[in-house]
Every structure is written in structure tokens, then in C-alpha cells.
Design goal:
By secondary structure, the protein is mainly alpha-helical. Helix content is about 75%, strand content about 0%.
């Protein structure tokens, strides 16, 4: 077989292995290692490339952001800032139809800015927001759909693990990716709010809900005490990066320290809790760095096979322009999103398409935002839909089936697609804070 044939079969093999449950880094690294061995008929070369992949990927200083931001998110979650932010948002939107759903979106957007994890958001707000909405007779499908839809904000609003992974694959600045994610993240949150308002107006049966007769306005002093820690933390981390006062690594360190101080002052973390948080941070860091290392050898395998250049040649012969290439790319992302998780999609697809995007003079930072949002839609679609499974498992409520979660999330997946199309049509939206 030719190198291109081996490379093509390797990509298919990786997708199938991941779909059948093989751990992503294992599938990427093992198949890539074997493919290089077969292409060059040289075991030592494949082994040396694997060593280089380890030394030149996970050992980079930039990836110190991974444990720092992971620790910050975990310790802030323990401090209960997500619940506090939800309480404030719930008070603000209480009198609007679908208001508790809007509060969930707003709180999730704020929570995303300090956790960077869709799974964490889905888990926290399944416990906090869904019972509250069911208490006021909201449609169960709407309740879980709002949580599922807004949970994906954790992967686009910085700090985001997916943006860090993309920055490695595309060799882009982590700080630039974080800044570029702010406007699209806020756009998506705003689009969700508008969608909920329109649902409440034109499809009230889907939303459900009744007036909160026991509603009591929250005093301004309580609002300030509940929101100040989160606002201060976000301003320190994101503001420090945007103003150039701190690198992403320094911002992560500052955020981790502030998060720990907040948790200690609130007496929400014990020595045992701190140790458990450190252990969980280690697990998350190891998993992400293993992914990055596997992605490195996978990219080298693709380069040796010449697969990106062959794809460029095929699309060039078809005389595809920007619109056709982006349409094909989005359709591919949506399809893969039904069977693979976000990190797998980024690691497998991005190295194939980068050689097509760069010659067109398009920003790779913008392309990263498009990639992450496109892949994130898969978190809401069956059969994989990780966020939907997390919500169902967290709720453990017989009144809500997995089907309800997927159907409730469907309108929000549609909203994500609309926002994605807008970001493709107007790249300046993603790059506005970088100019």
C-alpha cells in the first residue's frame, strides 16, 4: 500500500476504535505508531518519532495552563460560586416567562468563565436548576434542555480545555484563543436568552412554568456578596490576559490562588477536600497532556503520509471555494459530533484541514473558534451527546428520560448552528478583541 492509503486507513481505524470505546490517546498513538512503522518499514524511526512527540508536546511551558485552570475550576466549584451566581440570576429573571431558564443560561456563562468544562457545568446545574424549574411546573424537557444547551458554554468561553488543545494542534497562542472565545461565547449565551424568550412567547406549552408566588427580591448587599468573588476572579484572569499584564500561565496561577483563597474564606474546603481537588486536578492534567502527546504523533503520521496535501489537491481539482469548503467542514463536524467527543474531533480533523485554510489567508484563531463550536454541537446530539448523558446520570429522576434530555436540547443545538453560521460569515466577530 502507498503511504496515502495507509494514512487514510489509519484515520478510519482511529475513528472506529474511539467509537467502540478505545481510550482516545491510545487509539491515536497506537494507530499512528503502527502506520509510521508500515509506511517507512522502520520500527526505530516510529519509536524515535514517539519520543520526540512526548518531549516536544507535553513538556512545553504553555501547557502549565492545564493544571492551573483545572485546579481553579474545581476549587471554585467547591466554593459554591456556581450556586450563588444562579441564585442571583434567578432573582433577576424570575418575573419573565422562562425566566429560570434564562437564569440558568446567565449563571452557566459566568460559571464557564472560571471552569472551562461543559461536563462540570452540566453536573452542577442539573442539581441546582432542574429541580427549581420542576418545582415551578416547567416542562421537564425544557428544563433539562436549557441545562444541556447552556453547559456547552464551558467549552467556548475561556478558559477552555478545548481551546488549549486546539492551540497546540494549530500552533496558535493560548492567550489569543482565550480572547477570541469571549465574543462568540457571549453571542451564544445571548442567542440562548433570545431563543428562550421567543419559546416562552410562541410555544408556551414547551416551556411551561407558573408564576413564582413566593418570590422575594434579593437585597443588593446579598447580590454583591454572591457575585463579587466571581466577577473579581473573571476580571483578574481574562482581564489580565487581555490587557497584557499576565501570560495565560500567570493568569492561571493567579486564578488558582484566588479561587483557593475564596474557598478558604468561605470555609467550603477542608484539608481532605483540598487533597481530593489536587488529585482530581492531576487526573485531568494527565488526561489532557496524554491527548496532546497522542495528537503530536498523529500529526507527524499525517505529514509522512502526505494526507493533508492530497486532500488539498483533491479539493483544488474540484474548484471548491471558501463557502463550499466551510460547508463541507461543518457537515463533517456535525456528523462526527454524533459519534465522537469534541477533543477527538479536534485532534483528528484539524490537522487535515489546516493546510487548506492557511493558503486561503484565513485566521487560524477564527478557525479554532469555528471548530470548537461546530464540535460542541455534538455534545447535544445522539447517540453520544456527552452532556445529555451527564445530565441524566446526575438527575437520577424517573420523570426525566434520556429521550427528554435529547429532545429538550435539540432547539439549543439549532441555536448553536445559527451562531456558527454567523461566525463563519463574519470572521471579525471572533477577532474583534484581538484587533
Amino acid at each position: 500500500m502507498t503511504p496515502i492509503e495507509i494514512g487514510g486507513l489509519s484515520v478510519v481505524a482511529i475513528v472506529l476504535l474511539i467509537y467502540f470505546g478505545v481510550y482516545i490517546p491510545i487509539a491515536l498513538s497506537a494507530v499512528s505508531f503502527v502506520a509510521i512503522w508500515l509506511m517507512r518499514d522502520n520500527f526505530e524511526l516510529a519509536l524515535n518519532l514517539l519520543k520526540i512527540a512526548v518531549s516536544e508536546s507535553a513538556m512545553e511551558y504553555t501547557f502549565a495552563t492545564v493544571p492551573l485552570f483545572s485546579f481553579m475550576g474545581l476549587v471554585v466549584s467547591r466554593a459554591g460560586l456556581g450556586s450563588d451566581l444562579y441564585a442571583v440570576m434567578s432573582t433577576s429573571f424570575r418575573r419573565v416567562r422562562g425566566g429560570i431558564g434564562m437564569a440558568t443560561v446567565g449563571a452557566n456563562a459566568g460559571f464557564a468563565a472560571v471552569t472551562g468544562s461543559s461536563i462540570a457545568s452540566a453536573s452542577v446545574f442539573s442539581k441546582v436548576a432542574v429541580p427549581e424549574m420542576l418545582k415551578y411546573d416547567y416542562n421537564p424537557r425544557f428544563a433539562v434542555g436549557v441545562v444541556a444547551g447552556s453547559s456547552v458554554l464551558g467549552m467556548i468561553i475561556p478558559p477552555s480545555a478545548m481551546l488549549i488543545i486546539y492551540s497546540f494542534v494549530a500552533e496558535q497562542s493560548v492567550g489569543a484563543m482565550f480572547i477570541a472565545g469571549v465574543v462568540p461565547g457571549l453571542m451564544l449565551a445571548g442567542a440562548y436568552l433570545v431563543a428562550i424568550f421567543l419559546m416562552g412567547r410562541f410555544t408556551p406549552a414547551f416551556v411551561g412554568g407558573r408564576a413564582a408566588e413566593d418570590y422575594q427580591p434579593m437585597p443588593w448587599s446579598e447580590i454583591a456578596s454572591k457575585t463579587f468573588p466571581m466577577v473579581f476572579l473573571i476580571a483578574t484572569v481574562i482581564g489580565g490576559i487581555y490587557l497584557g499584564w499576565m501570560t495565560p500561565v500567570e493568569a492561571g496561577a493567579a486564578g488558582a490562588l484566588l479561587g483557593l483563597v475564596i474557598a478558604v474564606l468561605r470555609r467550603s474546603i477542608s484539608w481532605k477536600g483540598l487533597w481530593e481537588t489536587l488529585i482530581e486536578t492531576g487526573h485531568i492534567t494527565a488526561a489532557i497532556l496524554f491527548l496532546i502527546t497522542a495528537a503530536s504523533i498523529y500529526s507527524r503520521m499525517l505529514g509522512l503520509a502526505g494526507l493533508p496535501n492530497e486532500l488539498d489537491r483533491l479539493l483544488g481539482q474540484s474548484d471548491f471555494g471558501f463557502i463550499q469548503i466551510m460547508f463541507f467542514y461543518v457537515v463533517l463536524m456535525l456528523f462526527l459530533g454524533t459519534i465522537l467527543d469534541t477533543s477527538s474531533i479536534i485532534l483528528i480533523v484539524v490537522p487535515l484541514f489546516l493546510p487548506l485554510i492557511e493558503p486561503m489567508g484565513l485566521s487560524l484563531v477564527w478557525f479554532g473558534i469555528i471548530t470548537v463550536i461546530g464540535a460542541e454541537i455534538g455534545l447535544l446530539t445522539p447517540p453520544l451527546g456527552i452532556s445529555c448523558f451527564v445530565i441524566k446520570a446526575t438527575l437520577d429522576d424517573d420523570r426525566v428520560t434520556l429521550k427528554d434530555v435529547f429532545l429538550g436540547a435539540l432547539p439549543f443545538a439549532g441555536v448553536m448552528l445559527i451562531v456558527l453560521i454567523l461566525l463563519i460569515a463574519f470572521p471579525s466577530l471572533s477577532l474583534s478583541l484581538l484587533n
